[in-house]
Amino acid sequence: MSDDLSRGEFFAVTSAAGAASVARPTVAAPAGATRALKIRWYGGGVFELASPDDKQIALVDAWIWNNTGFKQFNIDKPAELSSASAYAAHIKARNPDAVVVALTHDHGDHMGDYFELLPALLAAGVNVKTVGQSDMMRVGLVPKFKAANLDPAQIVLNNGAGINMGGTAMHGAMRLELVPAVHSTILGYPAAGFIIDIAGVRVYASGDTDVYGDMSLTGVRYSPDLAVLCVGNGAFTMGPQDAAYACKLLGVHAAIPVHYAHNPLVVGPQAADLFRDAVAKVSPATAVTILRPGAPTTLQVAAAARLVDSPSANPRGAA
Questions:
Q1: How far apart are CA 278 and CA 67, in angstroms?
Q2: CA–CA separation, 9 and 6 (whole Å)
Q3: Containing H/E element for 15?
């Protein structure tokens, strides 16, 4: 073999080696065992997951009214996404039992509206909590929480501790676990992705990351049903081709591209089609759904067979 492996050849080799050394649990659901999951992309890397009845809502990152991810699509931002008060009223009107804001890292295109969002939701009477990497939550962001008149012990899950890699937090019927991301941060705390159990579906939210070999371990360990992956390439994250390799390493049956077309340094709207084409070649068992910013979408997701659907009991692996 030549010493000059292409990036694609390298991941093909390492993926095969990982599959040979670690037995992957069965992730295919029994026939017809699909679950409805609502998703809404807010542009960039920010999106919302919700149960069909809106009782459980998970917001991955918090850059909403200042989000620039609509412009390249020539879409007007919906009124409910135009300000903190409008968004809080929109969430309140859906009457959720629990809302969680999962913060992947501290870059502006992920937390630009975070410290305005949380007080607005609390003021509207929403049962909202937030979670992120433990040291970022309990040390790095504490001055900003206090400046926003927020008590970390009350607003951050696990009594202000957040979660670290492999750690767990629950809010309502939702369970969240933290997984690594290969990315930088402003404060120097680790960037992260999330495994989110919501409405009977397990979602891998990549946050901002490059593809890396241990994504195969994430696939084996958690058996996610759906991956929401950054694909924008440019100066910051993996691009469409590498995100396709991430699908293969994770072993997911469904994927959605995000984190593109929101600034001049990332690939534009064509990134989604490039990702879909790459997945068809690299991970053909993965079905790709392309979203439009602001458009609520209900997915029918094949959910893996697990011991129980309740996120409170042994969620890892398959039955």
A1: 27
A2: 5
A3: helix 7-21
Q: Name the DSSP class of 191.
A: P
157 in Cβ contact with 133 (< 8 Å): no
Take residue 26 and report the two structure tokens written for it. Answer: 């069965």
Three-state DSSP class for 252? coil
CATH topology of domain 34-290: Metallo-beta-lactamase; Chain A (3.60.15)
Q: Are 288 and 274 in contact (CB under 8 A)?
A: no
The answer for residues whose C-beta is within 8 angstroms of residue 146's C-beta and 6 or more apart is none
For 17, the token pair is: 């080696």
pLDDT in tens, 208-229: 999 999 999 999 999 999 999 9
Q: State the DSSP code for 287.
A: E
The answer to whether the beta carbons of residues 216 and 22 sit under 8 Å apart is yes
CA atoms within 13 A on the CB side of 265: 5
Q: How far apart are CA 218 and CA 70, in angstroms?
A: 31
Q: How far is CA 167 from CA 146, 156, 179, 207, in A?
A: 25, 14, 9, 17
Residue in the structure block whose two tokens are 């070649």: 281
Q: What is the pTM of this model?
A: 0.87
Residue with tokens 């396709």: 244
Task: Say whether 219 sits in a helix, a strand or coil.
Answer: helix
pLDDT tens, residue by residue, 111-157: 999 999 999 999 999 999 999 999 999 999 999 999 999 999 999 99
* Helices 114-123 + 84-93 axis angle, to 10: 50
**Other C-beta atoms within 10 Å of 74: how many?**
7
